[in-house]
Specification:
Distance between the termini: 56 Å
Radius of gyration: 20 Å
Strand content: 5-15%
Oligomer: single chain
Mean pLDDT: 86
Length: 188
């Protein structure tokens, strides 16, 4: 039996997971950053106890098939975005379909039912998060960002950015620049 651990971002936290598994008497074969392979089937009651024990650390146990699919799709999208070679050569629908050996429509339906947004919308939100970093921390232009993040054109980037943040990229940058100056002035 495998379960996934949602929000586990750092392997250092495995210590806390191991401690709770031992406390609850749950044996496991492998414990990875985001997955536990149990030695045997564990009752739903035990899994709920584990889930409650891990919530204070910000973790959540995902053990139903649909939740696990969503977590794996999110991980695949992060890999897709971080691999410029794949990202520039293959569209998302084909990438996801091939990765899961399942029609995109089926996977998108599951994702939408579980998260309330489509896979495309999730991808766009990740791209906008990245655009914000590039805009604020690396001071890239709109043209450089749209090219790097593979948007169709600058207008699409600006439109998507505004729909997610409520501001155009230039206004967002200006507002955040002013916030940074206020913080720096307050420290002096």
């Amino acid at each position: 039996m495998r379960v996934n651990i949602k929000n586990m971002v750092c392997p250092v936290y495995l210590y806390f997971v191991k401690k709770e598994l031992a406390r609850l008497g749950i044996s496991y074969k492998t414990l990875l950053k985001d997955e536990i392979e149990m030695s045997e089937n564990v009752s739903e009651a035990k899994l709920n106890q584990l889930n409650i024990a891990l919530l204070p650390f910000g973790f959540e146990i995902q053990y139903d098939e649909r939740s696990i699919i969503v977590l794996k799709i999110k991980a695949a999208i992060n890999n897709y975005l971080s691999s410029s070679e794949v990202y520039m050569k293959m569209d998302l629908r084909r990438y996801i379909s091939q990765k899961f050996n399942n029609p995109y429509f089926n996977l998108d339906s599951i994702f939408l039912e579980e998260t309330g947004i489509t896979i495309e919308k999730f991808l766009t939100s990740k791209k906008i998060e990245h655009a914000i970093k590039l805009l604020i921390h690396y001071n890239l232009t709109i043209t450089e960002i749209f090219y790097q993040l593979n948007f169709e054109n600058e207008e699409e980037l600006i439109s998507q950015f505004k729909s997610f943040t409520g501001l155009t990229p230039n206004l967002y940058k200006l507002v955040n620049y002013d916030k940074q100056n206020v913080k720096a002035t307050a420290l002096v």
